[in-house]
Structures are given as C-alpha cells and as structure tokens.
C-alpha cells in the first residue's frame, strides 16, 4: 500500500495538523518507508519463537503503597493562614 501526497493531506486534516504544502511529499516518502519496513518485518519467519511480554525483563521499581501519617493535624494547620483548630478556614465562594 502506497501513500500519496493526497492521502498525507487527508490524514493531516483529520488530525487537525497544518502541514507546509512543500513538505507533503517528504511526509509521503517517510510514510512509505515505514510501511515498506513493516512489510519486510512481516516476511520474517517467527515459527517457534515464543511471544514476549516486553524486550526487557526486570523487577518493578515501584514501592508498596501504604498509608502513613507523617504530620500531625497541628503541624498541617500551622501552615494555614486561618483555621479553627480542626479545619482550614477559607473564603466563601458562591
């Protein structure tokens, strides 16, 4: 499947992109290079190759999600411009 300049302009319009008319041909060539490469990859014999989840196997680096109280209520309220001892007092917004 070859992509011509008209198809590039149509795709750009659908994506709401403004493309310089002088570059439409260049983008068409790049699209076609990508599609040619994908065709070449589809010719590769993958019989007997197990599918991979990802190319790199590694353990997660995320921490466990646990709740913890780091600050007391008084410490938090000490940063407020105005409070009643339990809650922040903020201006009424109507």
Explain what you see:
The model has no long low-confidence stretch (mean pLDDT 89). Helix 1 crosses helix 2. This protein has 94 residues and is mainly alpha-helical. It has a domain of 38 residues: Histone, subunit A (Orthogonal Bundle). The longest helix is centred in the middle third of the chain and has 19 residues. 36% of the residues lie in helices and 0% in strands.
SSE map:
Layout: H1 5-14, H2 24-42, H3 73-77
Helix pairs in contact: 1-2
Quick recap:
The chain has 94 residues and is an all-alpha fold. Helix content is 36%, strand content 0%.
Summary keywords:
94 residues, mainly alpha, Histone, subunit A, 3 helices
The separation of the N and C termini measures 59 Å
Give unreliable regions as ranges.
none
- Broad shape: elongated
Beta-strand share of residues = under 5%
Number of helices: 3
What is the makeup of the main sheet?
none
Q: Briefly note the CATH topology name of the domain at 5-42.
A: Histone, subunit A
| Arithmetic mean pLDDT | 89
Rg from Cα? 29 Å
- Total strands: the figure is 0
Order of helices and strands: HHH
CATH architecture of the domain at 5-42: Orthogonal Bundle
Helix content: 25-40%
CATH class of the domain at 5-42: Mainly Alpha
SS-based structural class?
mainly alpha
